[in-house]
Write a structure and sequence with these properties.
The protein has about 180 residues and is α/β, with parallel strands linked by helices. The chain is built from 5 helices and 7 strands. The strands form 3 sheets. Strands 5-6-7 form a 3-stranded mixed β-sheet. Strands 1-2 form a two-stranded parallel sheet. A two-stranded antiparallel sheet has the order 3-4. It starts with 7 loop residues before the first strand and ends with a helix. The mean pLDDT is about 90.
């Protein structure tokens, strides 16, 4: 999971369990492995060969999803649809704007989203984006990573130099304020 590889989970020795044990194991797996919800889970028996035939097409599909190429216009359309259905939260009274998205890599798929205030996107909204992209793009069996890129203010740290006309207006305004006092 940390390496970002596609995966399929196979639980072996499934044939020797009764129905109650099978239900308990399913609940336990859901409880202990919620972080790999993207991976398909198969219950197999190597002795009888049951469930093994379904395993290989799922492995192939997971690999294809992990190495799929996604176009920038398509990802941007998907991003706009996702953002329009649930807008990003306000940060310090300003709305986070997510402008466009493109693919940043494969295996695992990386989606790079450009916008402003992207460093302030909450973790809950990031999970929402990941789940929405996974659902729309049908990325079963592979983790999805999202990176944010923001633009820097080109005028940050620069003082505004006043024109001679602005300097004169400021001097008159200060003089007028002193007369009022």
């Amino acid at each position: 999971l940390e390496a970002g590889r596609a995966m399929v989970v196979a639980v072996n020795k499934w044939d020797g369990l009764d129905v109650d044990q099978k239900d308990k194991i399913r609940r336990e797996l859901d409880l202990r492995l919620p972080f790999i919800g993207f991976a398909e889970m198969f219950f197999i028996s190597a002795l009888h060969g049951s469930g093994v035939g379904e395993l290989y097409p799922a492995i192939k599909q997971a690999y294809e999803n992990a190495t799929r190429k996604l176009s920038t216009p398509y990802l941007t359309r998907v991003l706009n649809d996702i953002v329009s259905s649930h807008t990003p939260p306000l940060v310090r009274g300003r709305r986070i704007k997510l402008r466009y998205a493109h693919q940043g890599g494969q295996n695992p798929p990386i989606i790079v989203i450009h916008g402003n205030q992207t460093s302030d996107v909450p973790a809950s909204y990031m999970r929402y984006l990941i789940n929405s992209f996974r659902k729309v793009l049908e990325l079963e069996g592979t983790p999805l990573r999202i990176e944010f890129r923001g633009s820097e203010n080109p005028f940050a740290g620069r003082r505004n130099t006043l024109t001679p006309r602005q300097v004169e207006k400021k001097r008159r305004l200060v003089r007028h304020q002193k007369k009022k006092r």
